[in-house]
Amino acid sequence: MGLALVEGVTALGAVDYRAVGLEGFGNPDNYLGRQASRWKAQVESYYDFSGSPGPQSIPGSEKVASWLDRHRPDTFDPGIIYGDYHFGNVMYRHGGPELAAIADWELTTIGDPLLDLGWLLAAWPVDGLSTAEPMERLSDQRRAD
């Protein structure tokens, strides 16, 4: 199932978004250059939610954002990026480990598909717990508000 998950995100990133009519769907220009500031703004927006400890609950986030900006690749091959790819957003075929569907597409855009692979690895369950669960709860609360 894990290999099928990686194969699914790899296949999605390999789709020629222009050939399938998604030319104006997202803005790949400076996509990587916008990400660290976007993530910092999202973390700071957690103050808006009752019960959220805010950005101070994530020690070193500013340091990580600075590192990401300094080590950002100069170029990438734009493709379809799902934006929240992990076990909770896919369905598997009955009786086998093959993917049947990828669901919940509201964060999809055109960008660097390698970010989907990075998020998949960051959110990979360890000892039965997903490292993405706290972020997903905040995302769910944001959608409800």
Can you walk me through this structure?
The chain is mainly alpha-helical and 145 residues long. The protein has a single domain, classed as Alpha-Beta Complex (Aminoglycoside 3'-phosphotransferase, Chain: A, domain 2), CATH 3.90.1200. The chain is 41% helix and 9% strand. The chain has five helices and four strands; from the N terminus they run αααββββαα. Strands 1-4 form a two-stranded antiparallel sheet. A hairpin with a 6-residue loop joins strand 2 and strand 3. Helix 1 packs antiparallel against helix 4 and helix 2 runs antiparallel to helix 3. The longest helix is centred in the first third of the chain and has 15 residues. It is globular. The protein starts with a helix and ends with a helix.
Question: How is the topology of this model organized?
Answer:
Elements (H helix, E strand, L loop, with lengths): L1 H13 L16 H15 L15 H10 L8 E3 L8 E3 L6 E4 L6 E3 L2 H9 L10 H12 L1
Antiparallel strand pairs: 1-4, 2-3
Compose a concise summary of this entry:
The chain is mainly alpha-helical and 145 residues long. Helix content is 41%, strand content 9%. It has helices at residues 2-14, 31-45, 61-70, 114-122, 133-144, and strands at 79-81, 90-92, 99-102, 109-111.
Could you list some keywords that capture this structure?
single chain; 145 residues; mainly alpha; Aminoglycoside 3'-phosphotransferase, Chain: A, domain 2; two-stranded antiparallel ribbon; 5 helices; 9% strand
